């Protein structure tokens, strides 16, 4: 991928005194921000074309959280013509992610910020294949902010915020009441938690990959608190053999395998507080050993001005430009490649992206599901809206729900987890 050379900020221009090594300048002066805002936009070459990024602080950083309101009777998200959207499951407690077993048992993790997390996994079964579950069981309880789930070699794996657990599992079981085995401690705590730890195995089941987000926005609590964070970790199924597969990923959550290239892809939440349109979240292929810049730079070698006194030049120069920008502050969490046969041909092998939605933008962004097409060689095209209508109004900060996880069912339909709407939507062809 192409690299860029971005403008350098001199300490004289910034008017900053020297600080200790590895210390971020969390609060820049108003004068410094005004100087930075005068810079020309940066331009990078992504896998889908040129991306122009405004100068830091060229717009105000705002706190604009959405307000949740109930879905009106009969109202639902909108998909393109030819698709049908239905409620698959309702009355759940923050259903963040769905995992489907080989026997088509459907596992839903119900989890949220620590104060309001159900800390459980619910099992749903559609026994007559009518697109609605007839059975509902409390499968596993008393967890600690769970997110990732995986079934592998007779074990049911759960990624809690602070540990990877596994439980002996028998296919078709309605619940697990045995004590789990902790096979790996995971780092927890910090800014906004970034508590979602996702799981995926490779094709032969010999390795497991765990996503771990940062504990901060841009390292403001010290990089010693970021050990084993902002990474994708690789381990053996028994928890041994840990190594960092990729790093510099502020908050990687969604993970899936590109069905054409075989590459691991992830959806990443980028940093906040340097402008309305900085920094765009992205989905990207993940290179083994790859470094993606956080917190010292973004989109390759664009330096974060808050690290001017300790710029980490070598790290910045080595940073990989991510493949597909998907909008600033969209909180893109869900990622799933479509390998079914029931959607139109354009969707085959493309990626669906669940966008949980912004808080650091004057106009809300995200709150929808995107689709990113892939060509015959597995290269991405331009993102397009797929599932919209989660916003209550164009100029309103009210929303009906917040999409997160996306899962393909055996019949080729999609399940979309609506976190704050406490629903799971099923999207099929008419």
UniProtKB/TrEMBL annotation:
Per its record, how is this protein called by name? PQQ-dependent sugar dehydrogenase
Coiled coil regions in record: none
Q: Does the keyword Signal apply?
A: yes
Query: What InterPro entries does the entry give?
Result: 6-blade_b-propeller_TolB-like, Beta-prop_PDH, Quinoprot_gluc/sorb_DH_b-prop
Please state the span of the N-terminal signal peptide per the UniProt entry: 1-22
UniProt keyword Signal present: yes
Q: From what superkingdom does this record's organism come?
A: Bacteria
One Pfam family matching this protein: TrAA12
Q: In this protein, which residues make up the domain named Pyrroloquinoline quinone-dependent pyranose dehydrogenase beta-propeller?
A: 78-275, 320-428
Keywords on record: Signal
